[in-house]
Amino acid sequence: MPFLGVTQPLRVGSAGGTLDGVNAMAEFLRVRRGRIGPADVGLPTGPGTRRTSGLRREELAALAGVSVDYYTRIEQGRETSPSDSVLDALARALWLTDDEHAHLLALADRAAGRTPRRRPVDPRPARPGLRLLLESVRPSPAYVLNEVNDVLAANPEGLALLPGLGDWPPGHRNTIRYTFLHPAARTLFADWDRVARNSVAHLHTAELTAPGPTAVLVAELSVASGEFAALWRQHEVWVKRGGQTAFRHPVIGSLTLANEVLSTAGDGQRTLVYQAAPGTAEHDALVLLAMTTEDIPFLTE
Description:
Blueprint lengths: L20 H13 L23 H8 L3 H8 L8 H10 L4 H14 L16 H9 L5 E4 L5 E4 L1 H6 L13 H7 L1 H6 L3 H18 L1 H14 L1 H7 L9 E8 L3 E11 L6 E6 L5 H11 L7 E2 L1
Helix pairs in contact: 1-5, 2-3, 2-4, 4-5, 8-10, 10-11, 11-12
């Protein structure tokens, strides 16, 4: 899949690109308002057919304790600097999670031309200490990722766990791109839909901290994958902090691995490790996977 030559954040809208700050905040609020119905918050639906499936502007404004005119200006992109107290009230009214609330605050910072509350991506390669960590956790597959999930480094088991990832050029290796565009991903991930949804939700968190790289990746995947474009428009936001992933691996078979995400404060790099408890069938499978990696070098950029 060729790269698109995008060097700045796109202002594209619902087709999938990254919006400018004011419009990104407005669209996020519109989308989330459409997900909360009046019955969800104890409001009567009233007689007749509603023209919107979610809350009306006046209903959300009432729940948040702001005037309809003021909220309308925010949603139309005419109010670029709502206060934190207003944003907090809107977050409560919209039932936003902590990750979504933080995302809204960062969108507001961007709309107002302020420095985002999340740190920017550091483009430096994986630090030597993190590469050493990848060696230390073997046979557990492990990666060093930046905020848009570019693979900055991986141990041999990490490359072997994602068949075909190592065949891509180093600068093209990205776990979100792999999920949507590599044909092996569809059968590798036993619950591909959940992995895909988690990937897009995470990428939304990078929209503010790494707008340039995010715009490039979003533009590419929106063109190449209708499923990605549809998920991107849903504006789901959360930060991946660990969990479990089920695989159907062509070499070691079906297994479920726990994963942990370790963030390195201040530099934008995260270490993702898949692991299994010693003595389990899953750990034995990872040992088997390691035996197949003699010819796979460490990936570093």
